[in-house]
């Protein structure tokens, strides 16, 4: 029997709203911090299937979320494409050589780097109950390309955006390579036991409308179409953070089964503007959850009320902040599960 989350992603409305949180497997949990102290760095844990599965399952044991999101990182794809990947303390991810200075063809791909991730999915699916949906994921091509081009994260994605104007064919080659890899990577996750997958486009909000069409909508549509051919029963959630008024076009043109919504959008506007019946996911501000202020419960109810007439998965507008107290998460769960619209 499919779980409530999977049913909701497939367009059904149940007797309550399913709930999971982006980055729910992570640093806000004391059990995660203890395991990381034992195992070492982030990347080592992501490639250690037993450790990664344990981390994936930790929030399920503690909170009983309706979905278990794979513990991994969107930069596994550039690592498999041949860039060297490391996570530097206090600085974040570093990819070398950056493609602003090097050709994609100079890299030596290593697709074996996907296998530990597939094994994590297999282990998790074996250990989860049928009521919990196993979620896989990948970064969307534009967001992954911004890291590959610059070699690191940035506030405004300057290097990739400048390449898009200066040499669009060079960026198209990179995006096409990422798209092809992402299709195979997500197919591998689904074959290993992922029941739904999410495409994270964390930096989509930095693009002008025409650029959004080319670098966000077009490659995501190609990925969704390819997955639809090979795995038509597997829902794809698209999360174009920062899309703003471009979100309805994204929902219509990419073919995703469900749309993730960030905290900057009014849920009433989203409910009105998105195609009828498409499931939505979101959109509580992670910083409101961190603060735990008196406004928290009211905002949760506002979001639930706005989406009461369509399938809705409650989630945050982006990943949970690592400083978030456990008690605030418990309040969130209690409010969502006690809601009567």
List the topology elements.
Layout: H1 4-9, H2 30-39, H3 42-46, H4 49-63, E1 67-69, H5 76-81, E2 84-88, E3 92-96, H6 115-127, E4 133-139, H7 141-150, H8 158-166, H9 168-192, E5 196-201, H10 209-230, E6 236-240, H11 247-254, E7 258-260, H12 267-273, E8 280-284, H13 286-291, H14 295-306, E9 312-316, H15 326-337
Parallel strand pairs: 1-4, 4-5, 5-6, 6-7, 7-8, 8-9
Antiparallel strand pairs: 2-3
Please tell me about this protein's structure:
Strand 2 and strand 3 form a beta hairpin. The strands form 2 sheets. A 7-stranded parallel β-sheet has the order 1-4-5-6-7-8-9. The protein has a two-stranded antiparallel sheet with strand order 2-3. Helix 7 (141-150) packs across helix 8 and helix 8 (158-166) packs across helix 9. The chain is 49% helix and 13% strand. With 341 residues, it is of the alpha/beta class. The chain is globular and about 55 Å long.
Give the count of helical stretches.
15
User: Order of strands across the widest beta sheet?
Assistant: 1-4-5-6-7-8-9
For the record, what CATH class applies? Alpha Beta
Estimated helix fraction: 40-55%
The number of distinct β-strands equals 9
Largest sheet: 7 strands, parallel
Approximate shape: globular
Could you name the ranges where pLDDT drops below 50 across 5 or more consecutive residues?
Answer: none
């Amino acid at each position: 029997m499919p779980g409530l989350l999977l049913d909701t992603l497939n367009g059904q409305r149940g007797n309550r709203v399913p709930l999971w949180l982006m980055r729910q497997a992570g640093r806000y949990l004391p059990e995660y911090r203890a395991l990381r102290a034992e195992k070492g760095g982030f990347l080592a844990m992501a490639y250690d299937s037993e450790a990664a599965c344990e981390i994936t399952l930790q929030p399920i044991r503690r909170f009983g979320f309706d979905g278990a999101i794979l513990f991994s990182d969107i930069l596994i794809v550039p690592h498999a494409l041949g860039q060297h990947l490391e996570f530097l303390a206090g600085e974040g991810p570093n990819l070398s050589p950056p493609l602003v200075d090097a050709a994609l063809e100079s890299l030596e791909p290593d697709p074996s780097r996907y296998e530990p991730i597939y094994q994590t999915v297999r282990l998790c699916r074996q250990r989860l109950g049928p009521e919990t949906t196993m979620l896989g994921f990948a970064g969307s091509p534009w967001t992954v390309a911004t890291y590959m081009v610059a070699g690191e994260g940035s506030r405004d994605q300057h290097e990739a955006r400048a390449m898009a104007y200066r040499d669009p064919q060079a960026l198209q080659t990179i995006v096409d390579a990422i798209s092809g890899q992402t299709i195979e990577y997500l197919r591998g996750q689904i074959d290993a036991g992922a029941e739904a997958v999410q495409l994270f486009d964390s930096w989509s909000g930095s693009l002008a409308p025409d650029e959004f069409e080319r670098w966000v909508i077009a490659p995501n549509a190609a990925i969704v179409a390819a997955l639809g051919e090979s795995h038509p029963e597997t829902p794809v959630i698209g999360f174009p953070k920062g899309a703003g008024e471009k979100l309805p076009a994204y929902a219509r043109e990419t073919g995703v089964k469900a749309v993730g919504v960030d905290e900057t959008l009014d849920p009433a506007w989203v409910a009105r503007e998105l195609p009828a019946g498409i499931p939505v996911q979101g959109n509580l501000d992670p910083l409101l959850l961190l603060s735990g202020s008196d406004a928290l419960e009211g905002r949760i109810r506002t979001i639930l009320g706005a989406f009461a007439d369509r399938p809705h998965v409650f989630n945050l507008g982006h990943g949970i902040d690592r400083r978030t107290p456990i008690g605030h998460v418990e309040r969130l769960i209690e409010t969502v599960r006690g809601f009567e619209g």
